[in-house]
Each structure stands twice: as structure tokens, then as C-alpha cells.
Amino acid sequence: MLYLQPQNLLVQKTLTEALEANARGTPLILDRIISDFDYTTLHISNSPEEKALLWISIKTKAWLSISKCGPDLVGYLNTKYDDLAGVSTCQPEGGYDYTLQVDLKALQNDAVVQLSLLKVMTMSYPFQLAFNEFASLAQLPEGSNTTETVHKIEYRDDENVFIKPSNDRITVIFETFFQDETDKVFGKVFLQEFVDSRKRNRAIQSAPQVLFSHEPPLEISKLVSSRVSEKSRRFITFVLFPRHFQTPELQFSSICHLALFRNYFHYHIKCSKAYMHSRMRYRVDTFIKVLNRAKLDENEDGSEETTRRTVTGRKMVY
Amino acid sequence: MSYLNNPAIVMDNGTGLTKLGFAGNDSPSWVFPTAIATAQPSTTKKSSSGLGATQSQTGGSAYFGNSTSATSFNNLTSSALLSNNLAGKRGTEDLDFYIGNEALIASQSSSYSLSYPIRHGQVENWDHMERFWENSIFKYLRTEPEDHYFLLTEPPLNPPENREQVAEIFFESFNCAGLYIAVQAVLALAASWTSSKVTDRSLTGTVIDSGDGVTHVIPVAEGYVIGSAIKNIPIAGRDITLFIQSLLRERGEADTSLRTAERIKQEYCYVCSDIVKEFNKFDRDPQKFAQFIVENSEKTKKKVVDVGYERFLAPEIFFNPEIASSDFLTPLPTVVDHTIQACPIDVRKGLYNNVVLSGGSTMFKDFGRRLQRDLKSIVNNRIAQSELLSGTKSTGVDVQVISHRRQRNAVWFGGSLLAQTAEFKSYCHTKKDYDEYGPEIVRNFSLFNMI
Q1: For residue A276, what is the enclosing H or E element?
Q2: Interface touch B169/A179, C-beta < 8 Å
Q3: Does A300 fall in a domain?
Q4: Number of domains, chain A
Q5: What is the CA angle A29-A35-A37, rounded to 5?
Q6: Which of A175, A316, B79, B100 has the fewest CB atoms lying closer than 10 Å?
Q7: Cβ separation of A203 and B76 shorter than 8 Å?
Q8: pLDDT digits (tens, 9 = 90+) for B28-41
């Protein structure tokens, strides 16, 4: 099905090409702007001094809010990327939030995927913090094991993600807002389906529980109280239980899915519209066929007026 | 609003290849065939699970995104939902498709059928095109269409109804922030501004657009295409490849596949100034003959193919079509001359002065120089004749053919160039305009008036 990969295909392709070209001894001269979902721009360029050195910079709208979530976002990303051979961190390029320097001579092929995950890695920081907080809360005795912490990612103009760790679960709440009326209708059906399919289908019982509401859930009611008046706001809540983030692999796949949730969601709204449109075209075609069948054969009664007009005097077009 | 900082998306959907990318880049990010492989309703369910597995293995790193484990999921949902609702009964075939290179791979199995939604530059199948766009925007470009402005291209003489269809899809399905539809020939003219020969950035000129299937000669005056004067030549890249192949076959070379012929065309061919002299040159100097080594899939055997006269003979079919075809015999420079002569007299000078090349089949070395020489001699003959007849002195007509480094993706590059300018967004129609006026708004776009 139309599954969106967590890594950026274009970054992956560009780096693979650069790597191959470098191996052939003809390093590419790159200065590319690459875009990703949610106001994210990546920039891949050669370092001014050395052609075999590439700079990969990222600028994303969520950066400011993510860095507020925890003490050291840059440090977190550094630990993710420092182990890779040929990748080192450097001063952020002007206008960008974070820059990695890649040495094509030392870069391994599998590191390319890691590099193309840069955006997801950035988004994963607050999730990682929540996982850590969950672990420490679960250790604490009953009664003192609650926290007020809610991580907020402002990833779009008026849409946010809230992550709230507690001692037995992690709650992830998406605040969505539809600009388009049609989208709103499709979106509602989809979200309702997210909630219902879990009840209906026994095979996916282990998936996180999904809740859908018009009112902000209690966890975040204090944070969004000012905007409650807006009617078209929706809240989707995912409840992650320990089984969804027991191992680092599970943690990573949960993060990938959640980080891409909105994009995936909107992608499928677009797809269903496309499907509707194709049904409409099909319908119109069959109606036209019916109309054509009702057309009088002009040869039989040539005496009649050949062009028929509507009441307003316009010509009928078949 | 923050989408103002996002780069605009430039999409050039051609008959053969689609070029996708972001404005401001020097080359398209993705170039892949405008092909879509759709699931065939009856056979999908049974054979699909096996296909998914083989694909992810064979595809490997060659094409990114072959690992979509599409079909195993399909099996799960179709069985689970069947009992519950109507949508389940209809299935999810509409979501089961691949585009571009992935489509070519998928179509090798029997459960997918391949189709090309664009014929002769115009969209034929809107259902397929809509899905092609949706996949290219979300999967390949990874953008939210609501956050970006789009620049699309259309062939000259595209009916306005097609424009409206495009607008309906882009504004209603995708809710794109803004849309500009540009004529390909005009963008090719804009791309030529990178050449050092161009001094004034005008949108007047003759565009020779030669792709794989057909070659167009399109006169453009101040940004408007002179539709009545457009001429087509049925000679293009594919004919050159076939001609090389036939030469190889005649000589009985070790490998005469279409692929080899295409590689020879791309790597060895050039345009000569005089065909007879070039033959003599080759006979005197055996160094001119090249050898092309075909690399086999198993690296053990290496075939060697000699490359001889076809190095200059193949591109020659533009200038002497009689060597390859029997039904079309007008050389390219003559066609260009006829095209310009069919235009209003006041723009002809500008059209001769700015002949711009675009498309992969104009990439041969010295193609522009030869065209300029031949065109000049035609024009000079005519001037000499008219001077003789009228007895007055002519001021002369300057013929200039412009070739530049971006020729291969000239249309896309021109789009990228225009879409990165600050005023691009003011020329677009926005979603708000569309909602206010409806699809007929895209019948008119204001032209870029460049400095």
C-alpha cells in the first residue's frame, strides 16, 4: 500500500550518487535544496575547501520547539551520528539549524540511510526523552510517580504534537486542523476508522489505542485552552504501552510511524479524493453514453432543425 | 505564512520522461519515465504476495523505494474488511500502483499493467495522471502540496480544457498553495539565458525541442507561442538510435542491441561540417574509429563493437534525412526557415536571431554550429535574391543558434530559474483565487516580464 518511508529518498539518492561519483574519482559538485514534510528544508553542498566533503544541513520549523523539550538536542543528534565512519559534526551553516559534515572517502554505504533519516532523528528527540522519563517514573514508588511534563512539538503553523510520559504509558496527542472543508470530511471518516478498526479487527489488537475527540484531552487541556473555541480543531490520541517501546528497534519504528502520521494521513486523504474523482469521471462517462444513445439520428429526419437550442438560446452540445 | 520560505516545485511531465525537482536547483531531483503500473483487478489478490517479495530483492539499491511492502498488507486488509463494509468489497486496487522506474519493474509480472498517461505531450488518462502526481509529490518529493507553489509545464497548443483539468486536480485534490502552468517552449527560452551568447533576456526566439519521439520547431514571440507556425519533424532520438542499430547490423557487429546503439549515440556521435570530407578524414586517419566495449552482466565475456562512420552519420539524418528515411526528406534547417517564414514579418528577425536548442537529441557536439551555418546560408541566399530583384540593399539578418550546458533538461531548468525568482509567487494563481473564480482562472497566466 502507499507506504511512506521514514527516510528521505532524495537525500538517499543524492548521497549514493555522490558516493559512486567519488569512488570513480570524479566528485560531484552539489548545491541542492531538498524539501521534506512540515516545513523542512535540507541542503546538500560541497564544502568550500574540499570536494570530497559534503555538508548536509537541515532547517525545520519544529527545531525551536524540539530544542526546548530537553537540555541538549544538538548533543543528542551528535551521539546518533558521531559513530558513523566519515560523518562528523560541524558548525551549523548560515540559515540552517544543524549541519553534518560527510567525508565521502570514508563514508560507508549503510550510513547513507542513517543520514537520510536526519529529519526523523530530529523529531525523535522528544520521544526519546519521554521514553527515558517513563523508565525513571516506572521505578519510582506509587504515589510519587506522576509528572507534569508534556513535550510539545510545534511542527506546523497551527498544529502541534504533545507527548506526555507517565508511569505506565506514554500518550501522544496530535492536534490537527484542516484548511479545506472537503479534507475535514474525509479526515473525520479516516480518524473514526482509526478508532474503530482496532475494535473490529482482532488481528491488530496489539496496536496502540487510538482516541479521537473534538475537545482537547485532559492531559493537555491546560496547554490549549486558549484555542478551544475553534471548531475545526481535532485531537487524535495514541496511547503507547510499554510493549510498543520495549527495545530500541521498537522505539525507533514507533517514532517513525508517529513522526510520519500526519503526512501519511493527509496523503491518504488526497488518495481517497483521487479515487472519488476517478469514480466521478467514470460516472460522467456512462451518463454521456446514455445521453448519446438518446440522440436522434439526423439522417432519418433531415427536415428538422439540425441544431437544437436550450431555453436561453445556447446550442446543445453532446 | 511559513510556506513562503519553501522552495517551489517544478514538474515537467513529458511524454517519455518526467522531471521533478525544486526551484533553485541546477538539475531535476528525479527523472523517471512517465509510466504507471496499475494492478489488474482480477489477478492482484492471488499473485501479489509473491511479487512484493521478489521486487524488494531485485530492486535493491538501484531504485529507491522498491521496498514498499504494498501487497502483503493488501491481502490482510482485503480479507479483514470484506465482511464489514462496502469499501472492502471493492478492494483497494486503486491504491496498488507504482510509478516511474518502479512501474517498469512491476510491469514485468503479470499482475500489473503498464500505461503511459501522457500521449504526444498531452494528458490522456486523468485517473492515472492524478495518481501519478499524488505519488510523485508525496513519495518522491516528500512535500505537503499545501505548503508549496507548483510550476507545471504544458505543450504548445494544449487546449484550455486540459489546463482546467490540471487546475481542478491540483487545487481540489491536492489543495496546492499556488499554481503556474507554463508553456514548455517558453521555459526552454528562459533556460537559454544561462548561455554567455545571450545578451538581452527576451522571450522571443525559435525553440527546437527534440526529445525521443518527435522534434518540434516552435516560434515564440514575446512569450506567446505562434501556434499556426509550429512544425513537427518525425525524426528524433529514437530514429537515430534505430539508424545506428541498422548500421551495426549491416556490418555484423558482435552486439547490435538497442541499448548498445543508444550508448554509442550518447558517447561517440557528433555533427560534422561536411560529410564527404569527414569520410575522407576517417579513411586517412584510422584513429577516428572507436571501439565500444559492451559490458556483459556476467563480467567474464567482453564484446567489442567497432564504431565507425555512424559517429557522424547518425546525427546527420537531421540535416540529410534521405540517408535514413524515405518519407520525410526536408532537412531541419529548411524546416526552421519555413517555420520562421510562416510567422508575422515583424518578429522574424528576432526569431532568426535567437534559435534555442532543447532536449536530449540536440546534445550532439557541434549540432548548434552546423544548424547555424546551414540556416545562415539559406537566409543569405534569400537576401541575395531579393536584393537582386528589388535592387535595394538589405540590412541583413543575423542568424544565431544558441546552445548551452543545460540543454538536456532545458524545460525543467527554465522552470527552476523562473520559479526561484522573488516575483514568481505573484504570477501564480492561489488556492484562494481558485475558490473565488473556479477552474477557468487558469486559462490566463500573466507572463514573466524579465529584466
Answers
A1: helix A261-293
A2: no
A3: no
A4: 2
A5: 155
A6: A316
A7: yes
A8: 999 999 999 988 76
